[in-house]
Design a protein that fits this description.
The chain is α/β, with parallel strands linked by helices and about 220 residues long. It is built from six helices and eight strands; from the N terminus they run βααβαβαββαβαββ. The protein has a single domain, classed as Vaccinia Virus protein VP39 (Rossmann fold). Strands 1-4-3-2-5-6-8-7 form an eight-stranded mixed sheet. The longest helix is centred in the middle third of the chain and has 13 residues. Bound molecules: S-adenosylmethionine (SAM). The site of S-adenosylmethionine has 17 residues, from α1.
């Protein structure tokens, strides 16, 4: 397993999200490593063999599931404690060679555009991160997201407005070359699944078959 810090000077350092989530994970949090249902769904779909990116992965089972299916996985999180938990579990299951752990703030993480067959994110929302994540999806690739809706703030007032989806988001933020496959609410959260159009490949030139000459009998 390789671990990549964010680029020099752009690491999470004392980023508020890192401190908040590290505190949560360090306080006796026991990860289940059960893959999120959206991860199970997207990984079972028709897709190319390219790599999978899981954003705000936490100590989740989705990266493990993708690796167990033979995918190269990039797992990104601002919490080094969460990545440590995921890394330990991957090592115990012999999957570490397939998983690259990236310790980064998603607002600043910018890998090669169109480089992932699947981009998955559950339990995190920032509209600018969604827009950047859509850029990472390869032609024909899948983008899967789940986050709290704005209505969730009624029952969970501690949720900040910008952590929640506005009506019709995230589908309304998809670039035009994506097709929305599904968007539906599940309790306080909304799930979305979309596919980027495959790049049109030029039709190969097929010469017309030569017709046998038929003599006309008059
Ligand atoms: C609710 S947990 C979701 C974990 C996992 N995706 C799941 O569905 O179980 C939110 C995750 O987002 C990560 N996170 C929060 N802010 C982040 C940021 N700015 N950049 C990267 N990761 C972040 C946290 O460390 C945490 O692991």
């Amino acid at each position: 397993m390789s671990s990549e810090p964010a680029g020099a000077g752009s690491g999470p350092g004392d980023h508020a999200d890192r401190l908040r989530w590290n505190a949560k994970y360090a306080a006796g949090f026991v990860p289940s490593f059960v893959p999120h249902p959206l991860a199970v769904r997207v990984l079972s779909m028709d897709r190319s063999d390219g790599p999978v990116a899981e954003l705000a992965c936490g100590p989740s089972g989705a990266a493990l599931l993708a690796a167990a299916n033979g995918c190269q996985v990039t797992a990104v999180d601002v919490s080094d404690i969460a990545l440590g938990m995921l890394g330990d579990k991957a090592r115990r299951h012999g999957l570490d060679h397939l998983i690259t752990l990236v310790h980064a703030d998603l607002s600043a993480w910018r890998p090669e555009p169109r480089s992932y067959a699947v981009v998955l994110c559950t339990g995190f929302w920032e509209s600018a991160v969604f827009t950047a994540a859509a850029e990472l999806v390869a032609s024909g690739g899948l983008l899967a997201w789940e986050a709290f809706t704005a209505q969730a703030r009624r029952s969970r007032p501690s949720l900040q407005a910008d952590w929640c989806l506005a009506p019709s988001e995230p589908a309304s933020l998809l670039p035009p070359d994506f097709t929305l496959l599904d968007q539906h609410d599940r309790g306080l959260k909304r799930q979305m699944l979309a596919r980027r159009a495959p790049t049109a490949t030029p039709e190969p030139h097929v010469p017309l078959p030569t017709m046998p000459t038929v003599a006309l009998r008059l």
